[in-house]
Amino acid sequence: MSLIKNWIVQFVLNRFKIPRDMIRYAFKKHSENKAIITENSTLTFQELAKRVYSLSTGLSAMEIEKRDSVLVLVSNGINQIEINLACYEMGAILTPLNINITTNKILDIAKLINPKLLIYDAKVANKIAQLLQQHFPDLKLLEIDSNYNHLIASYPSNKNKNKISPDDIAALGFTSGTTGNPKALPATHGVFVKSLQLIVKNVGIGSKKKNSDKFLVGIPLAGAGSGVVLPSLLSGSALVIPKSYNSEVFLETIQKHKVTRMFTTPSLLIDILDHPDLESFDLSSLENIIYGTETLAAAKLEEAIEKFGPILQQGYGSAEVLPPVSMLQPKDHIVNHKIANRNILTSVGKVVPQVSVKIVDDDHNDLPFKETGHVLIKSPTLFTGYWKQPELNTKTFVDGWLKIGDMGYLEADGRLHILGRSADVIKKGNQIIYPRLIEEHVHDHPAIKECNLVQVDNEAVLAVSLRQAYRKNTNHETIAFEILNVLKNKIKPYQLPDDIEFFEELPRSFLAKVLRCEVREFLKTKNKIAI
């Protein structure tokens, strides 16, 4: 029956050319289902549809047109979803930014895209809104706290009549800008549909619990969290938006709402595993945990499988090439009723059909299986090139293949291993160290929560944070000595860290990813503790 259902979903999905098609289908098919659940409110698909159509109509009345850029700085999850869907509905170019982004970066982004509208939360972006309007006098403002709901209430919930092509730009994402000015990554309407088609073909959607599938969005919607919106809508699932992004809130939310699925980062999943009262929460409703945006150490993945069972899943992709590029399915985590071996768990799964990956050397010559080099990708979900910065495309595309800076290797069966970014490779004399290969072994020490091996001048420095149970009455020198003993038996002498530095927590981004660049910069300016 599940195979038949999956085939039907694929058949229906193949009819859609743009996100608007599938959104309208979902609104009609699942009208009575819950669409969004937050701490204080719930919206059905029918209620969400009415608000999205009214918002689209209201934005058109503000003279926001197809292909106009809409800059979004909001903190409320429901608002973010409504704005996303309204932009898809009318063909405006969605540009969501996280609320912690610096003013200078926002100005740089605005100069690049020349937005026609800023939708903002006055509590977090009132000064930024005023500053942007000084630089862009024609910029229209829509404040969430008052004007936004008034706009929705003032206009009918009519479908938009703009003609939208699959090749039209639907959204702009941005690189972090840590190595220069932010770079805009356009995604077309067609690419979002192709991404969803590949997800459905390779994973399938739906739940064992008919009409009660609840998806906890464990990554902010201004980032990778937005990737679960369309799949959830299509399947009739409810999106559960947490009040904040931490393990305590996640555990309470899963228990309270009987969450069936969750998408989160490895760092937040580790926080859950490290929660002192984890066993006191009822998490039996969980059917699927998707971990993504970065790799998860095998030792922590093994712990998660032991706790939650064979329900974990990983997909590899990026802002430049929407997932899935490769997938590590729930069934891949368990082999012959036992946790899979480390070679499988340290991979990002097998490259999916319709996507091609190859590994090349510095001169772009193809490398054989199991040899490490630059990861190149071809996919129907590939972005079209940087927005208004064509000079950057020559570095990013190699004969039509995407080169985003990841290093890794392929196995003959199509299994892909990602070892990290080329910018994070450590060089000691003539030797090269891929940090992840060392970090995997460090995680075997029971005290380690997270770790980063980074280059500081000519040394390799290991930054670690400790699990809750080891934070009191633990001698750092003893832990450092034990880590080195673990490593000496597993890696070559030149790969050993020169120093070990202890952090209470490693710095994380707004999206709850460890910021390796900040670890590196901090250690460059701090006196290191000798081992």
How would you characterize this protein structure?
By secondary structure, this protein is an alpha/beta fold. It folds into 3 domains: 2-294, ANL, N-terminal domain (Rossmann fold), CATH 3.40.50.12780; 354-422, Luciferase, Domain 3 (Luciferase, domain 3); 425-525, GMP Synthetase, Chain A, domain 3. Helix content is 34%, strand content 23%. A 9-stranded mixed β-sheet has the order 2-1-10-9-11-12-13-14-17. Strands 18, 19, 20, 21 and 22 form a 5-stranded antiparallel β-sheet that branches. A 4-stranded parallel β-sheet has the order 4-3-5-6, with helices on both faces. Strand 12, helix 12 and strand 13 (312-316) form a beta-alpha-beta unit. Helix 3 packs across helix 4 (77-90), helix 3 crosses helix 7 (144-154) and helix 10 crosses helix 11 (266-273). The longest helix has 17 residues, at 45-61. Mean pLDDT is 92; it is low at 1-5.
Q: Determine the mean pLDDT.
A: 92
Q: Do you know the CATH architecture of the largest domain?
A: 3-Layer(aba) Sandwich
Shape: globular
Beta-strand level of the residues, as a percent range? 15-25%
Describe the SSE topology.
Layout: H1 2-13, H2 19-29, E1 34-37, E2 42-44, H3 45-61, E3 69-73, H4 77-90, E4 93-96, H5 103-113, E5 117-120, H6 122-135, E6 140-143, H7 144-154, E7 169-174, E8 184-188, H8 189-202, E9 214-218, H9 229-235, E10 238-240, H10 247-257, E11 261-264, H11 266-273, E12 288-291, H12 298-308, E13 312-316, E14 326-328, E15 334-335, E16 338-339, H13 342-345, E17 350-351, E18 356-360, E19 373-378, H14 393-396, E20 397-398, E21 401-410, E22 416-421, E23 426-428, E24 431-433, H15 435-442, E25 448-456, E26 459-466, H16 476-488, E27 499-503, H17 516-525
Helix pairs in contact: 1-8, 2-3, 2-9, 3-4, 3-7, 10-11
